[in-house]
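Appendix B, example 12.
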Amino acid sequence: MDRLENSPRADRLVDGMRGTVRKVPLGASRDVLHGRWLGHPVHPLLVQLPIGAWLSAAVLDLLPGQQRAARVLVGAGLAGVPAAAVAGWVDWAELRRPQQRVGLVHAAANVVGVSLYAASLIARCQGRYRRGRVWGFCGLAVTGATGAIGGHLAYRQAAGANHAEQVSVLVPPGWHPVAAFADLPPGRPRRGHVGEVAVVVVRTDDDTVRVLAERCSHMAGPLAEGEIVDGCVRCPWHGSTFRLTDGWNVTGPATAPQPAFDTRIIDGRVEARFRQPRHRSSA
C-alpha cells in the first residue's frame, strides 16, 4: 500500500477518471452522494448491502437445500452495487493524489468482485449451482481484499475523516488574541492562531469579525487562501463552503461543519474563544 501511494504510474489514468467524474452533471445530488446530509460519507453505509448479502449467501451455500435463498441474496447484493459505486466515485474524485491511487485499485478490484458475482448469479439461474457457488466464493475472497484496501483508505489515509475534529481538544480554554482589528482588510480571509491552532479570520463588511478553524474538515485545505462568497468561506482545494457565522458546511464535499469561535474586540485587538458545538440549522 505504501508503494502504491507513492507510485505515479497510474496518474494519467487518475487524472482522466477524476475529470470524467467531476464533469457528470449531478447538481445538488452530488452533496447527497457525499453524505453531507448524514454528517459523514454515505459510501461506507451503502456498501453494507452488497457485502452483507454476499456474506449471507456464502453461509447458505454451506448448507443443504438453500440454493434459491442464496441465489436471491447474490442478486440482492448486485442490485445494491450501483448506488455504492456512484457514491464511492464521487468521493474519490475529491481526494488527494496518494488516496486516489489507492482508491483506483480499490475500484478495479471491486469490478473484478462484482463480475465474479454476476457470473455466479448467471450460473445459479441456469441451474449450475456448484459452479455458482465456486464463483461466489471467489467473489467473496476478492470482495474481502477490496474491503481491506478500503480500510487502508479510511483508517491509514483518513479518506472521508473529519480533519478538523481535533480542534476542540487542542484549543486552550478562554479568550486568546488573534489579530489587530486595524490589520484585517474587510472581506478578505487572514490566517491567525488560537494557541497552536491555525484559524481563518474574516472581517465582514459590517466590521464584525468571524473566526473558524483554518484547516478544512474535508481534506485539511487552507481556508485562509480561499475566497469569501455570500457570507461563506470557500476552500481553495475542493470547493467546500462554510458559513462564517457558525461554520456550517453549506456545500460539500465536506460532510462535517467547521469549528467556530466566539469573538470580541478589546482595545483594538481581536480575541477569540472556542465555541462549544451546538445544533446548527442547515437553512
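The longest helix spans residues 97-125. The two ends are 41 Å apart (CA to CA).
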